[in-house]
Amino acid sequence: MKHMIIYAHPNPKSFNHAIKEKIISEIGNKGEEYSFISLYDEKFNPVLASSDFEALHRGEVLPDVAKSQSMIKEADHLIFIYPIWWFGQPAILKGWIDRVFSNGFAYYEDDKIFTPFMTGKSATVYVTLGTAKEVLVQNDMEIDNFMRDMTLGTLGLVGIYPVNVVPFYAIPKISDAERNSMLESIVI
């Protein structure tokens, strides 16, 4: 199996970074392949601009988008790693999706049909939250509710299935031992 890791966190000392390192180690231990993109390290431009539309109209794809699309084409399984900020993904990841999952690549749509082009791929979404699960549940904000945009409205819409969400709660509030236990629970 070939994985593509999409990593979206700006801090190299974050728990997200530790998750990324653990996943890369697990993939290596299984003898599987992976490609990797760190959106912040690559300074990926998240702005869907007129140049994107002009390139698509000419039948072209801009180089930074083409690189990600090539990696996706080769992958069987996409792995997203990012923090939940304001009940959503970081803007850089949202912009990456806007630019990379374009009509003609991730799907085809005209005035009559919508056809997903990413069938046969699966995904795992690893997310970190600053809030405890109990606090979210208490306030009717369970993770499945605010992850729907990603799991159904983005990945599911283009045919990626199954999509598994692995949440890690209360990251800044728990002990190092608890975080280490969470890391040990990661299995690819």
UniProtKB/TrEMBL annotation:
Gene3D superfamilies: 3.40.50.360
UniProt similarity note: Belongs to the NAD(P)H dehydrogenase (quinone) family.
Protein name, entry field: Putative NADPH-quinone reductase, YabF family (Modular protein)
MF annotations from Gene Ontology: NAD(P)H dehydrogenase (quinone) activity
Domain Flavodoxin-like fold as annotated: residue spans: 1-178
Tree of life domain: Bacteria
Protein keywords: Oxidoreductase
EC number: 1.10.99.2
Gene Ontology cellular component list: cytosol
